[in-house]
From TrEMBL:
<dbReference type="GO" id="GO:0000160">
    <property type="term" value="P:phosphorelay signal transduction system"/>
</dbReference>
<dbReference type="InterPro" id="IPR011006">
    <property type="entry name" value="CheY-like_superfamily"/>
</dbReference>
<keyword id="KW-0597">Phosphoprotein</keyword>
<protein>
    <submittedName>
        <fullName>FOG: CheY-like receiver</fullName>
    </submittedName>
</protein>
<feature type="domain" description="Response regulatory">
    <location>
        <begin position="10"/>
        <end position="134"/>
    </location>
</feature>
<dbReference type="InterPro" id="IPR052893">
    <property type="entry name" value="TCS_response_regulator"/>
</dbReference>
<dbReference type="InterPro" id="IPR001789">
    <property type="entry name" value="Sig_transdc_resp-reg_receiver"/>
</dbReference>
<dbReference type="Pfam" id="PF00072">
    <property type="entry name" value="Response_reg"/>
</dbReference>
<feature type="modified residue" description="4-aspartylphosphate">
    <location>
        <position position="67"/>
    </location>
</feature>
């Protein structure tokens, strides 16, 4: 029998590809995951959201899904800035990218990513990815408490 997550979680997906965002969103909905998925179309927008400049997200995320290859501030730059910020550094980050290059994997972990996943290529694989997020991050792992306990506005 599947254990229920202890609480509803907020997930911030940072990706410049709207189709990938929609696939993940639909997979979360199809599997009735106890999470709200928010999206930022790039690292700069995500950092603005996290630092309270943008009202696009009502609460601090419990987990971040981060693409690496984006225009402007790429995922590496975002991760480095996130880890330097005392208010944000403990948010778990799962790299979700199309790159399977070993140097990208190594650099992500050097910058303290919590996991590295190559983007699935089909609907079934996206569903499997979401199930693995649910199983590990929402049911097995214990997430840190929200940093501020407040909404970001």
């Amino acid at each position: 029998m599947r254990a229920k997550p202890e609480r509803h979680v907020n997930i911030l997906m940072i990706d410049d590809n709207p189709a990938d965002i929609e696939l993940v969103r639909e997979s979360f909905e199809d599997q009735a995951v106890a999470a709200t998925l928010f999206a930022a179309r790039g690292s700069s927008q995500a950092m603005a959201i996290l630092k309270g400049v943008s009202p696009a997200q009502p609460a601090m995320p419990d987990l971040i899904l981060l693409d690496l290859k984006m225009p402007g501030m790429n995922g590496f730059d975002f991760l480095q800035e996130l880890r330097r910020d005392g208010n944000l550094q403990s948010i778990p980050v799962v790299i979700l990218t199309s790159s399977s290059a070993q140097e990208d994997i190594d650099r992500s972990y050097q910058l303290h990513a919590n996991a590295y996943v190559v983007k699935p290529t089909g609907l079934d694989q996206f569903a499997q990815f979401v199930q693995s997020i649910r199983s590990f991050w929402l049911e097995t792992a214990r997430l840190p408490s929200p940093q501020t306990g407040k909404a970001l506005y």
